Amino acid sequence: MANHFHTIPQDEAPEKINLLVEIQQGDVNKYEYNHEYGILELNRVLSGPTHYPVNYCDVPGTWNDDDNDPLDAVVYGTKNLLPGILVKGRVIGMMEMLDNNELDPKIICVAEFDPRYEHVQTLEDLTPYQVKDLKTFMEIYKYAQTTDSLVEVGEFKGKEEAYELIKRCVESYKKKFSD
Questions:
Q1: Residue ranges of the alpha helices (H) in the chain?
Q2: What is the pLDDT of residues 49-81, one digit of tens each?
Q3: Considering the entire predicted model, what is its pTM?
């Protein structure tokens, strides 16, 4: 059986990237793509009054050397997207993040084929509460389980900075998996 992490190309990167949805907007289940088996796996269930404010995705064909994991992305769309589906994301920026003292930035996208997000080309085109909800969620989502602040959210950066990160992570993937 094919492992989608290795078979889905990033043929329009860095402007548009193929995303594998791990967690749908509104969910409390934290799924992660198991790169060994090529399927989604339940990692944990969030406790406390939190749920994902946006669809959360894995970026196949990328590797973030800072956290030894694929690049992560969020994708805004009209409704939640089912875990395991492929969605094309138009990159509009990124969020800096430190998780357990590891750099773990999030690429911010909108669903390419969602007409309600056609007008969104930059972070400034999102509503202020969308950005604030994402920031707040990332800062607190682990707190109910750990009672410790393990996550620090840094600055939100534009799409040019996101493009550079994507290019770097595509190259890291090629080096790591060139065998």
A1: 4-7, 128-140, 143-146, 159-176
A2: 899 999 999 999 999 999 999 999 999 999 999
A3: 0.95
